[in-house]
Specification:
globular; seven-stranded mixed sheet; alpha/beta; about 45% helix
């Protein structure tokens, strides 16, 4: 990354092209001025793109890579990712965005048309209800709220995606349901309850994916100073070790019994 006083970018990006893109998607003001309050958003986006780039290196270049952004919102991440793939990586990609806000979807489709991003398409739908009949390589989300994270992970499994990238946001449902458990002396303090729910909820999701054969990593994808919600779950299909697949459900059930809740993901998946 570099910071030139106006914009944070990967060094390889053409600043002129990127400034035009940022103005179109709303990271620059209509007058082309940098929004200082969105510096943290830049860091999150480019750190996320670094993770997706590592996956792209392992995918075939003989056909377009198809990616689905679940709960895309204003699609800062996807627009910049598309430009990065096109101009820096020289990769042929198709990106599909899903969000339940029709106004945002309409705006994203108009922006994609103005930018001539012909292989970007946006659809108004809940993540769980969206249907698509194409081969998908990567399913991802950045700060999908509450059970939308569970829906996007389930979508990734249903679409048989090779990679699933998730950075969850709030976990209201899990927090509400986590009541009786042996760590109440800790969770009675609100900041610690939030952290505990985040750790347990994502760990449960990871175990469910491991049970289905996904190799899973959970790590900080960006420094906490840029967002407190900085934990990424990355699942790679078919890469779980044998012992992980065999023991994942037992460990999952132990967590459910201990903390008296289960994530919505369990109900969304077809588990053996």
């Amino acid at each position: 990354m570099i910071y030139d006083g106006e914009i944070m970018t990967p060094i390889d990006f053409d600043p002129t092209n990127l400034k035009t893109l940022f103005q179109e998607i709303g990271l620059y003001s209509p007058k082309g001025k940098f929004y200082q309050q969105r510096v943290r958003k830049h860091e999150q986006v480019f750190a996320y793109i670094n993770q997706i780039e590592s996956a792209l290196k392992k995918l075939s270049t003989k056909r377009p890579v198809v990616m689905v952004d679940c709960g895309c919102g204003k699609s800062y991440l996807s627009f910049i990712l598309y430009e990065y793939c096109k101009t820096i990586l020289n990769r042929n990609v198709k990106i599909i965005g899903i969000d339940n806000n029709p106004d945002l979807i309409d705006k994203c489709n108009k922006t994609a048309k103005e930018l001539k991003f012909d292989q970007m398409h946006f659809f108004a739908s809940t993540v769980g209800e969206f249907k698509i009949d194409v081969d998908v390589d990567i399913v991802y989300s950045l700060h999908a709220c509450n059970t939308a994270t569970d829906q996007m992970i389930a979508q990734g499994v249903a679409l048989d995606a090779r990679y699933i990238f998730s950075v969850s946001c709030c976990q209201h449902r899990n927090r509400k349901n986590m009541s009786q458990h042996p760590l109440k002396s800790i969770s009675r303090f609100q900041p610690y309850k939030e952290r505990l729910v985040d750790m347990i909820g994502d760990s449960m999701r990871a175990l469910l994916l491991e049970h289905l054969g996904y190799g899973v990593d959970i790590f900080e994808f960006v420094a906490a100073e840029h967002t407190p919600k900085n934990i990424m779950l990355r699942g790679i299909k078919g890469t779980a070790k044998k012992y992980e697949t065999e023991t994942a459900m037992t460990q999952y059930k132990q967590l459910v019994e201990l903390f008296n809740f289960s994530p919505a993901l369990e109900d969304l998946l077809t588990l053996k």
